[in-house]
Amino acid sequence: DIIAIIKSRLDDVYATVMDTSEGVAVNRKSTDSGKGGVSDTDQATQSLASLKLVECPPLIETPAIELCARKVSASTGDLRKALDICRQAVEYAEQDYKKQSPAASRANSSSPLFTASPVTIVHMLKVLQSAFGTPTVTKIRGLNFHQKLVLCTAALHTSQKRTALTLGKLYDVYDAQCKSTGSVSAVSRLEFFDLVTALESFGLLNVAASRSELSRRVTLSVQFSELAHAVQDTHILNTLMGDQD
Length: 245
Prior knowledge:
By secondary structure, this protein is mostly helical.
């Protein structure tokens, strides 16, 4: 059926990419459009389109290809990553196809379901969210190290259901965490308050009002799992988040 055809084509394309030294990386260097060049996203889209994933009839919707190209171009720039994402999108499409029409899934590609592209932007969005994380994960990844460490400290305190977390307590635990690493120096208390203010403005922490600054109660506004996913590439933070027992 057509799903098998798409998978086979992706296998062939992936093998070709792996066998060549050129074309593995999607060009991530932007060219000044005012000088007649094309953007990195345009080049990424062209790279994927050139793999004959968009044909007549189309196998993957053009908007889905463009979305995949933008995401990969902005992150790894690796064409192999884009192909892996396309493969996963095909698998999502296959699952949807079987759920909607079990009988048709055993028939050939003449099913009405495949009169349009079998892989839509909806399938692509599901895969991209899994591959690159939610908007919250993206936001956390954009923080500096100490902002992430403050978030992780608050998350661990919350997950272990200890006493109410105040700004004063959070700073003490944060300071202790820095010392325990043996390589990270804690910021001053004043700088720490600035970190917390920034995290609150990003919607990642909530700090209640209080007469005393140090007694203000702090609560986490993100899921522990999202935070753990966002910091997994930073060894110190990944180790810290894994130590929750």
